[in-house]
Design goal:
The protein has 408 residues and is α+β, with helices and mostly antiparallel strands. The chain is 28% helix and 22% strand. It folds into two domains: 9-57, no CATH class; 66-163 and 177-408, no CATH class. A hairpin with a 2-residue loop joins strand 1 and strand 2.
């Protein structure tokens, strides 16, 4: 309801009709003087008095719904519109549809408000391994081509052909051109759905919001991460463990991990990545990692958890670093006896393309028997490593990469 009462055409017509009914003619001065005096009094009223008076007199003007500012309200409004409920808690769902400018239900869903995209993205990132550390590229189109250097050896050149040469005065200059390739990101449809009780949707948008936040984080975030780590490509992103640039080091003990395995992994990482990479290990690999030790003859010493007075004892929380780099425990990588149970990755060499046409639709058919509504969230994205292969260092040693793991 507006703070100012206006003389609408309908109201002015009402005055003319009233003047004629009273026999005062179409332009009855007395009626108009009374009306003008009434409007002057209304303008001097406090806002709350003005609203009450306007409502009682039927003079109020239609006010547009206040903008939806919370994710819970947005989801509640989408649900209400798709269930033919004209309004919830005083908010017209028709306003939501006009603002979105999109179709509904099975024909496309409602695009997320622009203000909710960063909020949803933040929710998803909270528990992810890859996305917070990767390079993210907005995709304005379905396909994006990204230039990349094709570099396989530093024996005589870098960047696939760049080299420096010495020559005599006035002699011919050496030449060297980088080898440039392209990486193709193709937006793939990625979706998740969430079940919410109809009572909760109808009664409280504030209660819906934290529930949806947790489920989105655990759903979208979890399975994005799975693909960024282990995806096989094709209709899914290409994960680091499926990358042709991945290096797999030989395991020193079948089905187990030793300190030597971590040393070997570290030795195959790009030197420039040693300040950015993170360790990712499977939960069932922890017992072996906790017992990492340097063996000397028939004895030795622990190197990760010990009682040497530096605080790393079994009483304290386990260290969160190995060789100065963070350690992340994740069920999204393969189990202890499999390739990938322990790896070291520089995710700045991983690209994520976000098409970000995130849409929300609902259905009351999926869980009809339990009186729940399913929210389906769809977005489009792609991801794959920026480097195409491991490379041979200038000294001719073992190949190096930004992605190194232990073999089976």
């Amino acid at each position: 309801m507006t703070e100012k009462v206006e003389k609408t055409p309908e109201y002015l017509q009402l005055l003319d009709d009233l003047s004629k009914d009273l026999g005062l003619g179409k332009d009855g001065d007395m009626v108009k003087r009374v009306a003008d005096t009434m409007f002057e009094r209304i303008e001097k009223m406090q806002p709350e008095q003005k609203r009450k008076f306007s409502t009682a007199m039927g003079l109020e003007q239609k006010q547009e719904d206040k903008p939806i500012k919370r994710l819970g309200e947005f989801c509640q409004a989408v649900w209400a519109k798709e269930h033919n409920i004209s309004s919830i808690r005083g908010k017209s769902t028709e306003t939501i549809i006009k603002a979105l400018g999109e179709s509904q239900g099975s024909t496309g869903g409602f695009l997320m408000y622009e203000q909710f995209k960063p909020e949803l993205q933040k929710l998803v990132i909270e528990d992810q391994v890859v996305r917070p550390r990767a390079r993210t590229i907005p995709m304005a189109m379905e396909t994006v081509l990204i230039p990349r250097i094709v570099d396989t050896t530093h024996a005589t050149t870098i960047h696939g052909g760049v080299k420096g040469t010495y020559g005599a005065e006035a002699g011919a200059l050496g030449t060297g051109d980088p080898s440039i390739g392209q990486l193709r990101l193709l937006a793939k449809k990625f979706s998740d759905y969430i079940l919410v009780s109809n009572e909760l949707l109808m009664d409280s948008p504030i209660s819906v919001e934290p529930l949806l936040g947790v489920l989105m984080r655990e759903g979208l975030g979890f399975f994005e991460d799975v693909d960024f780590l282990t995806g096989a490509g094709g209709d899914r992103p290409l994960g680091v463990l499926s990358s042709p640039a991945l290096i797999s080091t030989t395991r020193t003990t079948t089905s187990h991990l030793k300190y030597a395995d971590a040393v070997n992994i570290w030795s195959r990482l790009f030197p420039s990545s040693q300040k950015r990479a993170v360790w990712v290990y499977s939960p069932d690999a922890f017992p072996d990692i906790a017992q990492f030790a340097v063996v000397v003859g028939t004895g030795g010493s622990s190197v990760w958890i010990n009682g040497a007075g530096n605080g790393n004892t079994a009483v304290d929380a386990p260290p969160m670093f190995l060789f100065g780099r963070p350690m992340v425990c994740s069920e999204k990588v393969p189990a202890l006896a499999s390739a990938g149970s322990l790896g070291l990755y520089d995710f700045s060499y991983y690209l994520i393309g976000d098409r970000m046409q995130m849409a929300l639709t609902t259905s009351d058919q999926v869980a009809f028997a339990s009186d729940q509504t399913a929210f389906r969230i769809i977005e489009r994205l792609d991801g794959q490593p920026w480097i195409a292969s491991a490379l041979t260092p200038h000294n001719g040693g073992s190949t190096l990469s930004a992605f190194v793991t232990v073999a089976a």
